[in-house]
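Dienelactone hydrolase domain-containing protein, Linnemannia schmuckeri. Tokens?
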Amino acid sequence: MSLTAACCNTPAVENAQWHDKGEFVTLSTEIAGQKRKTYLTGPKDSKRGIIAIYDIFGYHPTTQQFYDRIAESHGGFQLSAPEFFPEGGITPEHMGESSKVMAWIGQHGDYHKNHILEVALAAVEDLRKAGCTSFSLIGQCWGVLMAAKVVSEENTPFSSAGGAHPSFISLETTKDVKTPLILLPSKDEDDLVPVIERLNTKGFPVESFHQRFDNMHHGWTGGRGDWTDPEQFKAGLQAADLFGAFYAKIAAAKESKL
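Tokens:
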């Protein structure tokens, strides 16, 4: 799998600020004997759930703002962004070379070794207890690959997945996906139209969606996003609205079958 060069060379924005609308709570289920927190946001009476998988920088003010805005869009969602990196996100000394970044991901973000599926499912169970009846996944960067892996599992509880500025997404890594995807690449990612075209041959009740943000760099909705920049802020709001619209359509399709 290849890693986009911008993922290795673009650091996190250090001066980002945002007053969180959500709160950090502890997941009910321990993962490998360890308690994990999650960032919960959105209206607590919503029956539509979203599990978010952040980028390699972990929690970040821009990332939380992005989640808050998705959660309050299109009628509202209960969004849970669980802790996938208990020791924190990638640090500056690992940036600059793809080998260093890949080594860090291999140590902290391996799908099996780092219990990605278990964390996502634990977050689902808490949202289910909170009244949610439908679930979608959103990832950023590395998190989009993790989301694709989760919805490639048999009997996945998720009705859709996707994400912004995806890393490692290709025809190969999405061949077993069992739900529609929404993909919002930046100018730094490969052409993902072939992925969407193949997914739309699978006969899902809602077609997959793709929109390229050629005016944005890799990471603009997460740790690398500087939303004090008006252009990035506008693109961030547009992305949040697109995700909200897609996941609302997915939830409606599921509700129509109940």
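The helical segments are 5-9, 61-71, 98-108, 116-129, 142-150, 193-199, 230-257.
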